[in-house]
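USER: Note each token:
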Amino acid sequence: MPTRESILDAAAAEMLQHGYAASSLSAIASRLGLTKGALVRRFPTKEALAQALVENLRAEVVSQRERSAQAYPDSGIRAMIDFLVELGTASEAKPLAAAAAVLITDRTSPTFAMTEVVAVWRSALAAFLERALQLGELPEPSSASELAEYALITSIGEAALSAHVYSPAARGEPLHFLRFTLTAAGVVDVDGQIDEVLARRSAEVAG
């Protein structure tokens, strides 16, 4: 019997290719070389698979929030950039994360797990921006909650778009919309800060 992770990988691949509504337990089972009956003993419904995929993303968001805060304790802006870069990398490298991002924007997918993961994502962004306000990285008066809401919408949209755009060149520059958001909010040298975070990440991967 395939592992739980391999089942979720198959479900993620199916939902990325066909969307939630057009995916089926039979098609997911076929990807695994299983009968539908064998699959439903582990995941009785398509909704259960979707919930597991979104829970995977929620756990990734929680974990990455802590890692980014520790990596940049003296900069809320850099911590937020690092957080979004790492989540974007996860979406590109892991079908589970990419499928979850797509499910959030798919109107046919169930909403039972979406509210929680979106709230956790928004909370992380708001915390980074509140820290940026405390450190003087954002001009007064700025609304951390409003900026977090806007950054959330653009980052989820960008993640969902990236899941369907397979050419790296077509994706353009990393965090394209975040650059506009932070610049409009009055953050100084946004491009330089993003480049710094990307360079540090590249050095860590190479090392």
